[in-house]
Structures are given as C-alpha cells and as structure tokens.
Amino acid sequence: MTTDQDALLGRFITRTADAMTERGWQVDPTAPPDGTVFLGGFQQAVDGDWLATVDFILESGPTHLGTKLTLAGLRQAERFQATVGGELGVRHLPTARLLRLLDAICETNVSRELDDIAEEEGLELPAMIDADSVDEASRTLVRLVDAHAMRFARDHADIDEVVAFLASGGQNSRDREFEYIFVPTLLAASGRHAEARAALADYRQRPKTDPAEEAPYAHFADKLTSWLDKPSVTS
In this predicted model, what pLDDT tens digit does every residue of 58-112 receive, in sequence order? Predict the structure, then answer.
C-alpha cells in the first residue's frame, strides 16, 4: 500500500471514530482497526446484557486505476479507489463469554450488512478516491448508523428475537454453521438448557456447508454438552 493510501484510509478511520464517539459510541477494545480491511469497531450499551455493535470494513480496493504517458511509455497511474461498508448488529455478552470459554470459532453477534441497508434506501456504498470523498463516505455511513443501528439493536435485544432473526434467514452474510453454533450457545448462556440441548440435537442432524464441517461441529457440540452437564451449570 502506498503512503497516500495509508493516509486516506487513516483519514477515514480518524474521521469516523471522531463522529461515532461524539454520538456516544465506544471504540471496541477487542477489535482495533488494522488500516487495511477492518476500519473500526464500535459498541454501545442497549440494555442489561446487550450491546449494539458497528463495524466498518473495506468492501473493495484499494485499487490503482488509469494510466499515464511517461518518457518510458505508458505507466499505471497512482489513483486510489476504495469502497467502504460494514455491518451493524447486537451482541449478547453472556453468549460472547461462553463462546470464548468453549474456544468456538464463531462471531459473537448477529448483524445486518450496511450494503443491504443502503440498497433499501436507494443508495450505494460510498466510494473513496480522495480526501473529500473519504470525508463524505464517513458522513454517509455514520448517517446510516444513526438511522438504523440502535433501532436494530433494541428490536433484537431479546433471546427469542435473535433466534427468530436467524431462523428467518436474516443473517445472510455467514454460513449455516454460524446459526448451528450460535443458537445453542445463546440458549445455554441464557439458562435455557433444555432448549440448548434440543437445538444441538437438531443441528447435529442438519446438513453442513461441507462434509468436512461435520467433525468440527461434532467437537463443538460435545464441548457445549459437557459444559451443560457440569454440576455447577445443571444445579
């Protein structure tokens, strides 16, 4: 990545973080921006064990476009272009803690893509080519967050709402194993142990994305079952 690209992505990260923190969002300490693809994560308390979440992600680019004529012939021109999006969601903290305890490779929230939300509003994800368009991209995405993030989080800050969201296909950006892992863990972390066991039995039987996923899922299911069987959990 060139110095100019570093500067422009850094500008987006800084402008967006400033705007988000001004609105009461906290920087997610577990997910610092890497300056390449992940451009910032934020969270805000909703109610009790629930956090609203927002992540900004580079969706395409940066690319170099165009050519220029030099004494040595045609050369590729240094023109930055990138598209930025991300997702907004809600995280159940006891579920996130249990996923970490189980060493489960799984996202800790349910979410919607900013791309889908923008499309519903007749918009496209913002493209960035220079400092002005970087600033405008940041403003556009923060406006989408203002309009949708807390509303989505409050509407889904409920165990049954999350289960229904996943069952309806609302989480369209992850493979089916996400639901198979997340739902039983969510139910277990919420004290709904009989439902967690029933969900595990159901998901064990469902087809996986690939046959190679059968063994890892069985390993996860066994670990969650062992957790549910602990006297401190069942008593």
Answer: 988 766 555 555 556 555 555 678 899 999 999 999 999 999 999 999 999 999 9
Which helix (DSSP H) or strand (DSSP E) does residue 81 occupy? strand 80-92
Contacts 24+ apart (CB under 8 A), 210-217: 213/177, 217/177, 217/180, 217/181
Say if residue 193 is exposed, middle or buried (CB neighbours under 10 Å; 0-12, 13-18, 19+).
middle
Q: What is the CA radius of gyration of the chain?
A: 21
Which is nearest to 127 in space by CA: 117, 145, 140, 116? 140
- Bond preceding residue 62 cis, omega within 30 of 0: yes
pTM: 0.87
Task: Give the closest residue to 22 by CA, choosing from 117, 168, 119, 138.
Answer: 138
Backbone dihedral region for residue 14 (phi beyond 0: left; psi -120 to 50: alpha; all else: beta) = alpha
CB-CB contact of 173 with 116 (8 Å):
no
pLDDT in tens, 152-205: 999 999 999 999 999 999 999 899 999 999 999 999 999 999 999 999 999 999
